[in-house]
Write a structure and sequence with these properties.
563 residues, mainly alpha, two-stranded antiparallel sheet, 10 strands
Length: 563
């Protein structure tokens, strides 16, 4: 576990103490001065830390599985293999929700709920902000597991429920929505309220108006998951969101994100595996061909510079008539079977050239593939200098693409193209800001002219049939989710893009000539003490016929992910 100060939010030793020493909660319930300090300054910050300090998730889940499922990257040098499709060592966020994230948030709500009269009203916005964090984290766990303990979870201290039931996804979408509506009502109410100290809120610095907007956008985000199961409920929530006094995101200044200090996300499990991963061929080709301004923000150029080419040519590796190809963005084929195709064989390894220099034979090795920009993920790589790490939770661009999709489908009357263009522009500018703060190699800010030219390209421009427009929206959600691969996985399952044979032509995963389904969920974790409730939840999920033949069948689908 990393030390708390690495978040750059001050001394948090007391927050850790408040989490570990449960006997102190008895005292705080009888001493309002102490309880206020703990609620406002300790418990929330500790949960926020647990939400962003996720190095195990990155190393074991995102780098090795999700970024490869989503074909952002490919294992190097062996290529992707059949092990991708077995049950991996993942799903750590599930355990974190019930320990380091959720218990403090529930305790904040409990303390405020135990207050009386005006004091309870005064502290209601504090509880509302805690509730938003709880819904977001609970949703992330539910989204990939299906049924989970929630309504009875984390209440052993207050209600002595030791064997919590598992709530179905259908139930949880209603519970989450009700909790968010209540939070928004509290955050948009008039009156005199206590608030979080800015130094203890790493996301919005205690800005209640921004938290209200974030809750409203979280309602919208969750509602989109209902598009296949309950479209009428989706429409009703959208109407409420659009009419809400909380408002919607109007710029990147509104987005829910974390920006670290210089001493966060360095080495260890944050290691972006530059030596074991390369960019995906189809993605890099698409971004290169469309001149996507984010290409250099996502991926690094390979080592085949013009100076290297001239050296090799002078040394006899190339004929005198050879001409340098200036393209330095090259990806690796995605399918496991591609490793064995002769035309790709040379890509799976560093190229070596024998040349003559100064009358001696010399071997020059050149990596001709593109790594992704390691410093977006690990500030300890590529020079180990100062930099800041950014993790989006809900971005303005994501909201823009949701709005565009809703407009195309006629659910809202807004201009779909305007939202789409704003989303693309916001995504480019947000990644530009991330890359600049992280101090990626060869950083160059995209120009407004480059963004305008990109938006005019046939594969990108918001033209064509509604199906083509929806595909372009899905592709942009995919590109915008590069720094949040769990979001990309969710949108891939929800929208179906990128698709095989599509505008951005996804590759089928083939192993030994057989097509492998991309996994769609994680196995519901085992439990040592609540097995009967878990077994009942699995049996209930299997009734749909889409969950799979067993809990281990990760190509099966959770409730919202209807075929």
């Amino acid at each position: 576990m990393k030390s708390l100060h690495k978040l750059g939010i001050g001394t948090l030793a007391l927050a850790t103490f408040a989490t570990a020493c449960t006997k102190d909660f008895t005292d705080t319930n009888t001493n309002p001065n102490i309880s206020k300090d703990i609620v406002a300054s300790m418990l929330l910050t500790t949960s926020q830390k647990a939400m962003v300090d996720r190095d195990f998730d990155w190393f074991y889940e995102h780098y090795q599985f999700l970024m490869r499922y989503m074909q952002y990257t490919v294992s190097y040098a062996e290529g992707n293999n059949s092990g991708m499709f077995s049950n991996p060592r993942v799903n750590e966020y599930y355990h974190a929700f019930y320990t380091s994230i959720g218990r403090n948030l529930v305790e904040i709500e409990r303390i405020v709920n135990n207050m009386q009269g005006e004091e309870k009203t005064r502290w209601s916005q504090v509880a509302a902000i805690a509730k938003i964090h709880k819904v977001y984290s609970g949703f992330r766990v539910m989204d990939v597991n299906g049924s989970i303990p929630y309504t009875q979870a984390l209440t052993a201290r207050s209600e002595e429920i030791m064997l919590p039931k598992y709530d179905s996804q259908e139930t949880l979408f209603n519970v989450f929505d009700d909790e968010l509506k209540a939070a928004i009502a509290a955050l948009t109410a008039t009156g005199s309220f206590e608030s979080y100290n800015a130094s203890t809120d790493v996301f919005y610095n205690g800005d209640v108006k921004k938290w209200a907007k974030a809750a409203n956008m979280l309602r919208l985000k969750l509602a989109m998951r209902l598009s296949k199961r309950n479209p009428e409920k989706l429409k009703a929530i959208v109407a409420e969101v659009m009419a809400s006094p909380a408002g919607v995101f109007t710029s990147s200044a509104d987005e829910w994100k974390f920006v670290s200090s210089n001493d966060f996300a360095r080495g260890g499990n944050w290691n972006a595996q530059g030596s074991a991963t390369r960019g995906s061929r189809k993605l890099i080709d698409f971004m290169f061909d469309t001149q996507d301004p984010r290409l250099g923000l996502f991926f690094k150029k390979n080592e085949f510079t013009e100076a290297t080419f001239n050296r090799l040519k002078t040394g006899g590796a190339f004929p005198a008539t050879a001409v340098y190809n200036p393209r330095q963005y090259v990806g690796l084929p995605e399918s496991p079977d591609d490793r064995n195709r002769p035309e790709y064989a040379q890509l799976f390894g560093v190229k070596s050239y024998e040349i003559t220099e100064g009358g001696k034979k010399v071997t020059v090795s050149v990596d001709t593939l593109s790594q992704f920009q390691n410093r977006l993920f690990d500030l300890g790589s590529d020079g180990n200098g100062n930099g800041q790490y950014t993790q989006p939770f809900i971005s303005y661009a994501e909201v823009c693409f949701i709005m565009s999709e809703l407009a195309v489908k006629g659910i809202i009357t807004d201009d779909a193209k305007a939202w789409y263009d704003k989303g693309v522009t916001a995504s480019v500018k947000s990644y530009d800001a991330m890359a600049n703060l992280a101090k990626i190699v060869d950083y160059a800010a995209p120009t407004d002219a480059a963004i305008a030219a990109y938006l005019a390209r046939p594969a990108i421009a918001f033209t064509g049939t509604n199906d083509e427009k929806l595909e372009k929206i899905g592709i942009q959600q995919y590109l915008n989710s590069f720094k949040s691969p769990w979001e990309s996985w969710g949108y891939f399952k929800l929208l179906g893009y990128p698709k095989v044979g599509g505008i951005l032509n996804r590759t089928d995963f083939m192993v030994g000539g057989f097509r492998m389904e991309t996994p769609r969920r994680w196995p519901l974790p085992t439990t040592n003490f609540n097995q009967a409730n878990r077994d009942a939840a699995i049996a209930d999920m299997m009734k749909s016929g889409e969950y799979g033949n067993s809990v281990e069948d990760i190509t099966g689908r959770v409730w919202w992910d209807k075929k």
